[in-house]
Structures are given as structure tokens and as C-alpha cells.
Write a structure and sequence with these properties.
Layout (H helix, E strand, L loop, with lengths): L13 H4 L15 E4 L3 H10 L4 E6 L3 H8 L7 E8 L2 E8 L21 E5 L2 H10 L3 E3 L8 E4 L5 E6 L9
Parallel strand pairs: 1-4, 5-8
Antiparallel strand pairs: 2-3, 3-4, 6-7, 7-8
């Protein structure tokens, strides 16, 4: 397990002035989505086996930086496992020090804040079944043929869409 935390470029560096588009000033570039989980290893297996994300890195940053940035008490005991697929990066966050808290109820789609992750897959039904095999669940009432909602083992909503769905949408 890696415990070295990457150093950020200086604010006025070339890397911070330019996004993924080289010399074009972008202003903002998507970096990652953080997902707090009860068991980092279980979540990693779910996202690898069910959705095909690849392991990228496993970090345990120092508590001093973590607690200040995340506004948590010490010891946070953060372990961050980064998974990726193409340009999408999912950060799985586990807290051995302060622990995790479960929401009082499952998240619903009209609740303010990020609602779900959407993934295009080759076979919606097979992927949903695989989610159940790896500790997730299917929201059967949401199965509309074209798409279905599932939950990962920690309750995160994930929308499964057919491969090529985004390309079928008008610009």
C-alpha cells in the first residue's frame, strides 16, 4: 500500500494554467468524484468486477493535511483508493480513524446534491445481476428496458444505460 501523497504543482506552474487541452486556457478540468465507503477493499472489488474500473493508486495521506482539507477530527485515518476508466476517476474513501456514518435512509433522486453515477454497459441485465453477486442491489421498479438503477454495497445509486447511449443523444 502506498503512503506517499502526490505533490501538487505550484499555482503559477504551466500545469495549473492549462487544462487537458494543452495551450487552451480551460479554467476548470474535471478531476475526480469522491465516494465514502464502509469497506474500501469491498468497494474496489465491486467497481472492478461489476463496472470494469481499473485500480490506479492506493494512498494514505497524512492526517494533518487530511483533517484540515476534509474538516474532520483527528485521527481521520484516510485511505483513498483511486479507480479509473478512461478519463473518469472514482476515489473510494475509507476512514479508519473517525469511521464512516451511514445515511439515515437511502438517497433519493430529488434530494439536493449529487444523485447518481451513470455508466453505459454492454448488457444491462447481466451487469445488474453481477452487482447483486458483489453485494449491490437492483431497484427493480426502475427497470424501464432502456435503463435500470442499481445500488453499490454502500447504497450509491448507479444508472445502467446501454453502450452507445450518449452518442445517440443530439448535440
Amino acid at each position: 500500500m502506498r503512503s506517499d501523497y502526490p505533490r501538487l504543482p505550484a499555482r503559477d506552474s504551466e500545469a495549473s494554467r492549462h487544462g487537458e487541452r494543452g495551450s487552451v486556457r480551460v479554467g476548470a478540468v474535471f478531476n475526480h468524484v469522491g465516494h465514502c465507503v464502509a469497506d474500501v477493499d469491498r468497494a474496489r472489488r465491486f467497481y472492478e468486477e461489476v463496472l470494469g474500473l481499473e485500480f490506479w493508486r492506493d494512498l494514505e495521506p497524512p492526517d494533518e493535511m487530511t483533517t484540515q482539507l476534509l474538516d474532520l477530527p483527528e485521527p481521520a485515518g484516510l485511505r483513498a483508493v483511486y479507480m479509473r476508466q478512461g478519463e473518469f476517476v472514482l476515489e473510494l474513501l475509507g476512514f479508519r480513524g473517525v469511521g464512516t456514518t451511514a445515511p439515515p435512509r437511502p438517497r433519493v433522486m430529488n434530494e439536493v446534491g449529487l444523485t447518481h453515477i451513470s455508466v453505459s454497459v454492454d448488457d444491462i441485465d447481466a451487469t445488474a445481476a453481477k452487482a447483486v453477486e458483489h453485494g449491490g442491489s437492483i431497484l427493480e421498479q426502475t427497470h424501464v428496458g432502456l435503463a435500470v438503477m442499481i445500488r453499490d454495497p454502500d447504497g450509491q445509486l448507479i444508472e445502467l444505460l446501454p453502450m452507445g447511449y450518449r452518442a445517440s443523444l443530439p448535440d
